[in-house]
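Sample log: Potassium transporter 8.
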Amino acid sequence: MSLGGILLCITGSEAMFADLGHFSQLSIKIAFSFVVYPSLILAYMGQAAYLSKHHIIENDYQIGFYVSVPEKLRWPVLAIAILAAVVGSQAIITGTFSIIKQCCALGCFPRVKIVHTSSKICGQIYIPEINWTLMLLCLAVTIGFRNAKHISNASGLAVITVMLVTTCLMSLVIVLCWNRSVVLALSFLFFFGSIEALYFSASLIKFLEGAWVPVALSFIFLIIMFVWHYGTMKKYEFDVQNKVSLNWLLSLGPNLGIVRVRGIGLIHTDLISGIPAIFSHFLTNLPAFHQVLVLFCIKYVPVPHVKPEERFLVGRIGPKGYRVYRCIARYGYHDVLLDDVKFEKDLVCSIAEFIRSEGPESSRSSNNTENEAKMAVIGTPSTHARGIKMWDDEDSTELKEVNSPEVPRKRVRFLVPESPQIDRETRAELQELMEAREAGMAFILGHCYVKAKTGSSLIKRIVVNFGYDFLRRNSREPSYASSFPRASTLEVGMIYHV
């Protein structure tokens, strides 16, 4: 019991280390060494001195902290304590934001809205849903217990459990990351783990006196994370196992065995290689597609901004006659997706620049798999001093024009430089791309429903059909989904039997 009380003396001081994602290690070390630690020592020394002199007043030693404070200083000390609680809670909140972000990146937590509050530091984030959830949990615990002792017991068990888990993981870091001997790792684990195990056992004694709360909350979040991770992994495995091979595409011929209609079909996919199953599902049910196909993928990288000249990765799928391309757009966490008109223009220009810079030797290559793996970094039109640009009515230029035939639709022209000269095959491909752009662009998004296979166990059916489906329907859509123009967006539904 005494160890449990001593443990409460260190709870709160460790909260400042949750700010590692927002401040440097040096600043935290200086603040802890010269401000936090001396203040704690002085406060506990003063309280110990008061207890040693006035312990006869109370038989049960139930002397509160504010009793030991002189009466004239009680209100200022109370104000400082409130500010300290605000700072400590803010550290816990920001630490929770960082953990949730990492869990979302690993596919272990449902998608939430992540707001980056800094254009320079990636760790400074704000998550509205988690912030409101923490507020509701704090109010529930405070109203439910109405006892500071029970809240302290819950906090103590949570803190010592984190310390014990951190010590165990640190021993693995010593062996796997630092490549030190197993003896050193075991010595570290035994020395610090034995001390923390004593405090942990002392906290378990108070399990029924409030310490059960962090255990119950951990169990709830464990179930949520397990269900989401399990469903996400099964969905990804289905995508990988059922993606269409290039040989299947080549067997269909240049027309892909379907009616090729005018326009550009932009198929969104999370895969960066191969053809998604949603494409074959669409063709099976509606054997008609656009004359130009683009498998489009959006990837967010952990940098504030991606340079415009490194925005797009463009490659070709199959021979030139198929008119199938792959495009990967890279965005930083502080980049804003362009409006649909600007985005379409940049995308088409990047494909046109890829066609121009590809060269005629690619058409003579017989290894289509190798061609698919080759992707070129193509920037936005503003970054190409001598690249292809798109013409509209307001533009005036001295560059050579490749005109499209007269059609009663929007007028589109590509402006290409005088040199190098473009061969006939490349010019024909650019001509077809212009005609497709004039006919319009359709955004095709896959809407997948994950269901357990027939004959699956009862637990799997509950987890996939009910748990994961509930979390999927109540989590946020990817941020790019709302950026596509709704008038030209087509959602294709498909059931994944996992």
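Observation: Residues 394-401 have pLDDT under 50 and may be disordered.
Observation: The chain has 13 helices and twelve strands.
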